[in-house]
Amino acid sequence: MKKPNPLILTAWVLHAVAWFLVAIKAHDYQAPVPGWMAFRYASCAILSCEGIEFEKPYQAVLSALSVITTLFFVLWSPWAVLRGSRSLRRFSAWAAAAAFVLNIHWIFLFGSDRSELAIGYYLWWLSFLLLAIGLFHVPRLMNPSVATD
Questions:
Q1: N or C terminus of the chain: which is more exposed, having fewer CB within 10 Å?
Q2: How far apart are CA 59 and CA 61, in angstroms?
Q3: pTM summary value
């Protein structure tokens, strides 16, 4: 890249910070759930966890997809930004936009308890949008001789 994209850098920072902020507020009998623990709970849809079960199969599927989008963000996006071709960055931008849309499902799954979603969730969710917008703008910031497919 010719110069860092501030939207992508902001997305990465927000995503990292969201891991340590409260994602789900405390219930009467439970402590607040930070982002890393929310990721762990969501991953119980893929890996079996003692004491964690999903009421309906679609909830497990949506949780698994959330885990996959988070792994995409953490593992794939730096590589796509730093090493990916223009077409790979474009694909990654669409994938990040799709992840943003997909991850709104938590608001619907929580239903009337959606007020329990906290700042960590919203920053995590917003990071996908910022990543998508930033990736859509990366080709314009690239040196034309480097930005080949």
A1: C
A2: 5
A3: 0.85
